[in-house]
Amino acid sequence: MKNNYQKNITKLGLAFVVITLFSCREKNGLAPEYMPDMYRSPSIEAYVDYGEVKDKIHTEFSDKMSARTPVKGTIPRGFVPYSFENTPEGYIKAGETLKNPLASNENDVKAGEELYGMFCIQCHGKTGQGDGILVEREKFPPLPVKFNPGLDIAEGKMFHSITYGKGLMGSHSSQLNQHERWLIISYIRTKFMNEIKSVVPTDSVQTAQVATQQ
Ligand code: HEC
Prior knowledge:
Strands 1-2 form a two-stranded antiparallel sheet. It is mainly α. It contains 8 helices and 2 strands. The protein has 2 domains: 2-57, no CATH class; 88-207, Orthogonal Bundle (Cytochrome Bc1 Complex, Chain D, domain 2), CATH 1.10.760.10. It is 38% helix and 2% strand. Residues 200-213 have low confidence and may be disordered. Heme C (HEC) is lined by residues 119-120, 122-124, 140, 143-145, 153, 157-158, 161-162, 166-169, 172, 184.
């Protein structure tokens, strides 16, 4: 009696497994779902678009992602748009019109030196002669630019190049906000190009604080 009971249970169990295994037929690429919450979490997903299943778009599930691209024309708080285009004309215009808003006082230069040491020194080198460690170890070709007193380059052009990148140098706009870019320019021009700004020294670190990304 007990044996029969056990056998029946085993048979039932097997049948259940077989039915479960073969019951999931796909229709239009979308299989019937047992406990769909396990596939499609009811919690808000930042980057998952559940509408895409096996390369097909199922509109009933799509468009539920929480991470959204910003509405066109909007800017984040504190963001200061950069109005010159990444073109040769934009480069020239930036050189003609953009001026360093900082007084390039001692504090600015010091802050700029610190940032230079983090983002530029590996290529441009300690003395600005393009003898950074990457160039020294031949990981990067020699730089065509040396930060010397004789270097004829407008500060606006420098800002433009740091923002968009130039030649083999990449853009630094995502790492450095506008204020930080000017701080580095203050450092380069004061220490390597021997330039002394004739602006009345103010606490420029505070006045230019509003400037942020690109
Ligand atoms: C990976 C190497 C690398 C790094 C890092 C780098 N640069 Fe450069 N930089 C270059 C190269 C190469 C050029 C020459 C670009 C050209 O004229 O083709 C250049 C050119 C420049 C110029 C001259 C631009 C012009 O308009 O002629 C400035 C100014 C400059 N870099 C500033 C910086 C500053 C500031 C940083 C740090 C925030 C920095 N660079 C980081 C490689 C680098």
